From TrEMBL:
Its EC number is 1.11.1.29. It comes from the Bacteria. Keywords: Oxidoreductase, Peroxidase. NCBIfam families: osmo_induc_OsmC. This is OsmC family protein. It comes from Novosphingobium clariflavum. The keyword S-adenosyl-L-methionine does not apply. GO terms for molecular function: peroxidase activity. InterPro entries: KH_dom-like_a/b, OsmC/Ohr_fam, OsmC/Ohrsf, OsmC_Ohr_Peroxiredoxin, Peroxiredoxin_OsmC. It is an enzyme of class 1 (oxidoreductase).
């Protein structure tokens, strides 16, 4: 079993409040977040950005391990993830996580690449965690 942790602090309430996020690893240390960073494009992060980063990282690693298991020894994977936050049921909900994968894997067929990427999308831990629509676009560079 692996565990990780992070903490958030929010001073003030509602739109006027200001928050900060810190991770156990220290990669985020008092990183600012709040209404302005979430809805107004101000500097800092927000929960959906962090979810997008986690999903992109998890899915890309799962694809990498799937390719290695299938016998491929080299290549590059680049994933962009866009998480959508919509108003729903009188509040807000994450409604979609869209993954766009570009891969350069010597010797792989487009069919094998697609199969391995689709299995990774369905089975990476963050995909399993998310209760929203997940889409996957994939392209193989020669």
């Amino acid at each position: 079993m692996t565990t990780n942790s992070a903490s958030a602090r929010y001073e003030g309430l509602g739109k006027d409040g200001k928050g900060s996020i810190t991770t156990r690893s220290g990669v985020l240390s008092d990183q600012p977040y709040g209404f302005g960073t979430r809805f107004e494009g101000k500097p800092g992060t927000n929960p959906e950005e962090l979810i997008a980063a986690a999903h992109a990282a998890c899915f890309t690693m799962a694809t990498s391990f799937g390719l290695a298991k299938a016998g491929y020894a080299d290549g590059t994977l680049d994933t962009q993830c866009t998480v959508t936050l919509d108003q729903a049921d009188g509040g807000f909900a994450v409604t979609k996580s869209a993954l766009v994968l570009k891969g350069a894997i010597p010797g792989i067929s487009a069919e094998d690449f697609a199969k391995i990427a689709e299995e990774a999308e369905q089975n990476c831990p963050i995909s399993k965690l998310l209760d929203c629509e997940i889409t996957l676009e994939k392209s193989l560079e020669s």
